[in-house]
Amino acid sequence: MSQFSVAVVGATGAVGREMLKILWERKFPASAVFAVASERSAGSEIEFGDQKLIVENLENFDFSKVDIGLFSPGSSVSKIYAPKAASQGCVVIDNTSEFRQDPDVPLIIPEVNPATISEFRNKNIISNPNCSTIQMLVALKPLHDFSPINRVIVSTYQAVSGTGTAAIDELSTQSKQILNDENAEAKVYPKQIAFNVLPHIDDFTENGQTKEEMKMHNETRKIFADDNIMVSATTVRVPVVYGHSEAVLIETKSPISPEKARELLSSAPGVKLVDDIGNLDYPTAIDAAGKDEVFVGRIRKDLSNPNGLWLWIVSDNLRKGAALNSIQIAELLIGQDSFREQGN
Fold it and tell me: Do residues 142 and 214 both lie within one domain?
């Protein structure tokens, strides 16, 4: 089997560390793995399976020696360095929002739209969708194929790890402060997150939506290649460390019964059906933490619309919502003749 050199950019962040972990777990055919981060982290050590990697400085890293770059350094950094890496022959798989709406950059969920991988040579950049979009569309894809979805209404319950390690630390610190009858100090979020929920993820836009809500709207349309799908989202940050949860209502062209939905989902790639209310069995964020699947339960008819169906969708936001999906894209990429034949 051919082997490929890989750079993980943003390696010291929560997603970057998960990328390294999953590359090792899945035995990705890597001839070399480079951990790359900011100057502040350069020279430090980071774990890669049973090995230790020395973190290299992004500012002067030579991407010409790398076949695949797994990027998760933040949008402002990707904006500068992803095109630079791509121009040096490295195919970038970017986990930030920077390139998602670029018409020349494929936006890929391997279980949903794998064929779009063929467009990677447009810019040598592939975009990884938003974490909440990924888990939702993995679950909705088999239903959409059976009866086209016209409308999606979704409320998310998103873990603090989606913000990063500083947010995890803030949740822990605030929880201790409150339990000790101290004032909770909010630094990462605009309001206290411990024992609270915040209906606000990312910046607000002029239409009253947040950027996170608009990501779910725009990305769903691009990935399903259907600008007629209406998506309305309310994204909420909750005091959970790992695992995003979503309450999703879909309206389809023709009705889908809960029984048929369970049948379709039970054999869908990347989905684990957990829907036995008689035994109080439904997925939770704790169930999904550390797992690769998208968990689906609470499937039921909507009482207000004969073509409506409710689902509860849960997934580990750092794995399937970010790192795993990126590496699955890389696995698709190395199967492309046009990738192997052009020296990558």
Answer: yes
